[in-house]
Specification:
Blueprint (H helix, E strand, L loop, with lengths): L1 H23 L6 E7 L2 E5 L4 E5 L7 E2 L4 E5 L2 H29 L5 H26 L2 E3 L4 E6 L6 E2 L4 E7 L3 E8 L11 E6 L5 E9 L9 E8 L10 E6 L3 H5 L1
Length: 251
């Protein structure tokens, strides 16, 4: 009487064993990707002044360190010149006071006051020079100008946005993927992104996954670094596929 039941149990176990690898081998669902530059910024004026020049127009490329904005610096340069002159005068007085102290012509307090006055003037000169340097805004990275927020001959106020820039050397994909990616895709895994705008499939590497899944859409956000950023623009979209096997990744 017990043998038929045992046979059924064995058959069921065998069926489960056969189905488990097949379920595990199911391919992951595709995700939707948005391409954005890693580096992007809105550059603002650190000082108030009239905009003299903006050499790089919207859409044009620039290199790291290139001048993007020049403000009218005549006032700040004059203040810097005066500050450095006052620093030099204070240095002469400090040297003279130190010599007089060695000769016992003045007391130690007078010599210390002269030395501290020189240090104060030197600090003021450095501040004035920094202010003058802030009149020139240079590119913090290599990229392109996305938009002008102001124009030459307009007056820029402190903290006022002047132009928006985006990088061109590093791009990242933000992928909205299904919940089946959780536990099966990890940082370092390869991802292929078939662009909607061009007949091109990008190679990317998973950088991170968000620690939480959206309970409504049952999706998780995956961030992937793109290996070859040439020809990309922010806002491009595509279909992302997790490349789990070496054979698929090589195709």
């Amino acid at each position: 009487m017990g043998r038929p039941h045992a046979g059924r149990h064995i058959a069921a176990a065998a069926l489960i064993a056969l189905c488990a690898p097949a379920a595990a081998a199911q391919p992951l669902s595709d995700g939707r990707a948005i391409i954005d530059p890693v580096e992007q910024a809105t550059l603002s004026a650190e000082l108030a002044g009239v905009i003299l020049d903006m050499p790089v127009r919207p859409g044009a490329r620039f290199r790291e360190g290139d001048v993007l904005v020049r403000l009218d610096c005549r006032l700040f340069e004059a203040q810097a010149d005066r500050a450095f002159a006052e620093r030099d005068i204070a240095a002469l007085r400090a040297e003279n006071a130190a010599e007089l102290e060695r000769r016992a012509s003045i007391g130690r307090v007078e010599a210390d006051v002269a030395a501290r006055e020189h240090a104060k003037r030197a600090a003021e000169a450095r501040v004035a020079r920094l202010n003058a340097e802030r009149c020139t805004i240079r590119a913090p990275f290599t990229g392109r100008v996305a938009a002008w927020e102001a124009h030459p001959h307009e007056r820029a106020e402190q903290g006022m946005p002047i132009l928006r820039i985006v990088g061109t050397e590093r791009f990242e994909a933000e992928i909205v993927a299904g919940a089946d990616w959780i536990g099966r895709v990890a940082p370092g895994d390869p991802v292929g992104i078939a662009l909607d705008q061009r007949p091109l499939t990008l190679r990317a590497t998973v950088r991170a996954l968000t620690p939480e899944m959206d309970p409504v859409s049952q999706t998780v956000t995956v961030y992937a670094e793109i290996a070859t950023p040439e020809g990309l623009s922010g806002g491009m979209t595509g279909t992302a596929t997790a490349l789990q096997s070496p054979q698929v990744a090589a195709d």
